[in-house]
Amino acid sequence: MIALIVISFLFSAFAVQLFMRRARRHARRYGADMPQRFHKGHVPRLGGAGIFIGTGVAWLVAGIGSDPFNVSWPLKSSALTLLCIAPAVLGGIIEDVTQQVSVRYRLSLTIGSALLLCWVLNLGLARVGIPAVDGWLQAMPYAAIVFAALAIGGLPHAFNIIDGYNGLAGTVAVLVCLAISHVALQVGDRQLAAMVICLVGATLGFLIWNYPRGKIFAGDGGAYVWGMVIAIAAVTLVQRHRVVSPWFPMLLLIYPVWETLFSIYRKVARGQSPGTADALHFHQLIFRRIVRVAFADDEARQLLARNNRTSPYLWIFAALTVVPAVLFWNNTLVLIAFCVLFVATYVAAYLMIVRFKVPRWLRP
């Protein structure tokens, strides 16, 4: 599998560099007054296209008939998966270039791709670790399919929300993929491990250009690649192996999922549309109120320095869920307890930052 990482890394790194040098014109269309903008200058947002290319090439190579990588992943299966993901990813890339694809249309594309994936790959989420709900899902197969489609179609937008600073969402995606590959290998599923390992290599190929210099961003396209591939892997892992608790992927992904749910609640409570962009996400509050102003020669360098110093806070935050998820991947009660603990910690930390009550030891 190391060979697959190298292949996806090289193709992604080369493609991202190509987009970084040849596709700067579209970056000027991204307004300087956008609430999510925390950088100076015009930076291309086509890193996601490079990640998609690197992942796709590695998937197709993994499906070679002679199976040189010992992953038992037929070329037809990997190609169909890639084709099903493509509409959602291309919709995100078009938004990155034009800034004219509405949130509703992009959500329709991701849900449409998710339904297509569930049909082609026969995916369904028939258990959630709660007996009453599991019985209902097993009695109604279509409900299990809809549940899986919502998870696969919704996670890309959750990754899009946390993709705010250099290296943030990409590193979270790498941590999650490594955790999934570890558990997949524990239960003997090399095919599933190969799927996410290819995404790891492609993401690393992007990160060498994105962190710490911020020369290119992943954009919506990158978030959709991460979200869809990880969601497919999570649903497939739970569906294939009953020993894996359905709360394992839930704890792994609780940070982007809860960030999304909390953002929806926050906006609705303020009378805003959930699709309205703002600058009140958890990572943005850390940037504004915890990371100190960096001393630099100009504003661009100052913003870049603060941008880079924000991401490690969230890497640690995400790692606090990844570690217990990997340790207790088959223990539902413990995983649920850690999910509840994370939600409580997140809300407490959010309120603490909003009220300017951050302890001194958290300030660098």
Discrete helix count: 14
Q: Biggest β-sheet: count, sense, barrel?
A: none
How much is the radius of gyration in Å? 20 Å
| Order of H and E elements | HHHHHHHHHHHHHH
What number is the mean pLDDT? Answer: 87
Overall geometry = globular
Share of helical residues: over 70%
Tally of strands: 0
List unreliable stretches of 5+ residues.
Answer: none
Alpha-carbon distance between the termini?
39 Å
**What structural class results from the helix and strand content?**
mainly alpha
Structure notes:
With 364 residues, this protein is mostly helical. The chain has 14 helices and no strands. The protein has helices at residues 2-22, 47-62, 75-98, 103-121, 131-139, 141-162, 168-186, 190-210, 219-240, 247-252, 254-269, 282-289, 299-327, 332-354. The mean pLDDT is 87.
The gist of it:
The chain has 364 residues and is mainly α. The chain contains 14 helices and no strands. The longest helix is centred in the last third of the chain and has 29 residues, at 299-327.
Q: Secondary-structure map with pairings?
A:
Layout: H1 2-22, H2 47-62, H3 75-98, H4 103-121, H5 131-139, H6 141-162, H7 168-186, H8 190-210, H9 219-240, H10 247-252, H11 254-269, H12 282-289, H13 299-327, H14 332-354
Helix pairs in contact: 1-2, 1-8, 2-3, 2-8, 2-9, 3-4, 3-9, 4-6, 5-6, 6-9, 6-11, 7-8, 7-9, 7-13, 8-9
